[in-house]
Amino acid sequence: EADIYQTPRYLVIGTGKKITLECSQTMGHDKMYWYQQDPGMELHLIHYSYGVNSTEKGDLSSESTVSRIRTEHFPLTLESARPSHTSQYLCASSGGTSAYEQYFGPGTRLTVT
Amino acid sequence: QKEVEQDPGPLSVPEGAIVSLNCTYSNSAFQYFMWYRQYSRKGPELLMYTYSSGNKEDGRFTAQVDKSSKYISLFIRDSQPSDSATYLCAMRRSGGYQKVTFGIGTKLQVIP
Asked: In A, which residues are within 8 Å of B35 by CB distance?
């Protein structure tokens, strides 16, 4: 089983609040990713990182931001949550040249009221 | 047009049946083809991957890639209730970092 963790698993929060979704992996992987998954839709890449101090935006425009200060940690922050941010957020990591094999965390289901 | 097309199902089969799951794609540059399995309320987990064309077998699972038709398949033999999950195909180009493009996923239910 992959050693990648996400907290919280479920979050219900009011509009305008600042939230941080945590993601940590213990596999020493250099690459980490954040995906958004909505019912009946594909996984959409919103952020990725090649390593410490490296972050890039993905294909899907997102108002969230990320940071990568430590190899194992890749938090995602929403400064002001809105109902349109309601979704499932999945964190993943991969190591070496094997970008095809991504290990996913269990996800955070975010509901903004 | 989506780069990867996958029928979302749901697909219901009796236990012991052979299941065929499929995806088509439009980008001929894709070289790595993966199948992920996602149980309810869990993240996807890699089931199998294939590089370029051909078949790959792992226990009850067989992955096939036909690049000439831009068509990939996953076969599950002797399906079990524990196979009930959503199966996502995924693919990427080779070389350096390339993003992975996922299908929408097919929901499979194996009925005891």
From this structure: none
